[in-house]
Structures are given as structure tokens and as C-alpha cells.
Amino acid sequence: MASETPLAESAYDRIAQWYDVDMAQNMRFDDVGFYADLCQRHGGKVLELGCGNGRILLELLRRGIDAVGVDTSSMMLQQLQLKAGANRLEPRACRMDARKLAFAPGFDIVLCPYSLVTYMSQPGDLERMLSEARRALCAGGLLVLDAFIPSDSVTGAEYRLDYRRPFGEEVLARYKRVESVAPRINRIERRYEVHSAEGKMLESLETSEDIRTFSPAELTDAVSTCGFAQQQVWWDYGRASPETHPQFFTVAARATTGG
Fold it and tell me: How far apart are CA 137 and CA 141, in angstroms?
């Protein structure tokens, strides 16, 4: 499998080696178990959009689920292969844009996990991704996507420390600042620093990404507009309700026939 779509370097290419101590540790809920359980119950062939370094995809493979992954970051996919090799797994994954998939229909489930939709920041991006997911599905196939629920962002000109975490024998520190650049569009700038155990800075780099926030209502409206019928919703991957101030919203929707 290969995509002819030219892809620019992703911010994730620059932080791939840190991902497992960075964003992977920021998820407070067991979304990996949630998606693996859902795919086992449903059965069939799975396509994961934004599979990254295999945080979810490798668990699907461990459970014997027939799964394929795509991501725009070549370095994250390289990390996926390294982790897979260490676990004697053989993933099928390739570099591809979720808005322009090079697959014929044939998947029973398409997953869009860990707020992948928020990276659909330009007009029409989300609709293109959902239309491509629908095209890749078998008749009546299931789309499952999630997103963090918008809340008031802390914006400002100064970087704020997010964390300091062990990284082998070194320490990884991440700082972040958020700027609102358009209605519902935030620019997330992060600065990463690697320090020795003695406190000497060994490496530093900065990344910048624009994300778009979506309310649960906007997501359900979008999947309906793009030819899906809503089947079920969850809050915090089934651990909460809309009345308990959840952080994540997930919707499952089945591809409708025709149209």
C-alpha cells in the first residue's frame, strides 16, 4: 500500500522519539482498551487513521485483530516498526493523508482516535476525511471518532511548563503556549528541552500546530452530513456522562447506503 499524495514534514516527525513519554502519557483514560474491545466485539477488518507509533494499532494486533494503519508522519511510522519488531508483531502501516486515502472499499471499521479530527483545521478538511473514511468502508461499515470537548484555553505570550519527565537517563521538559488565531482555531506552540541528569540542556526544539475545536453536536452533525447514521455515543470512553464534565466525546456511526 502506498500513497502518491505529497506530504509535508509533520511536527510529529520532530518529536517521534519522545512521543511515548510525551503525548502518550497525557491521555488519562484507557482509550486503547476501549478501541480494542470495540473492534473485538464488532469483528472484521480495521483501518486506523492517525496510527502514529502504534499506541492503539499494536494492541489491536496483539489481540489478533486484522488492522491497518496510516499516518502522515514518517518518523512516527518508523517508531511503530521499531516497537512492533521488539514485540514480534508485523504491522501493515503506511504514510498517507487521511483526507486522500488510497484504499478501495473493504474495511468494516474505521477509527479516528485521540482527537485526530482537531487537526482538520482548514475549511472542508473534516468533511474530506469523513468522506474518505466512508469510501474505505464496506457497505454498512462503522466509523468511530473522538475529540476532546472544548474548554476555556489558557492563552498568553509566555511559554508555561507542562511537565518534566524521565527520558532514559535524561529528563524531557515541555513548555507550551496557546494563541487563538481565528474563531475555534488555536495555535499550539510547544518547546521541548532534553536535560542531562545534572541539569545541562542537551537539546531544544519548538513545534507549532493549528487545531480546530469541535463540540459534540458539531461532530455528530458532520458525520450525519457525510453519509453516516449515528449508532452510539460515549463520554470519556464510557466512564462518564454528559453531566459529569467529561473531557472526551466519542461517536460511532454506520455508513448509510446510497448518496
Answer: 5
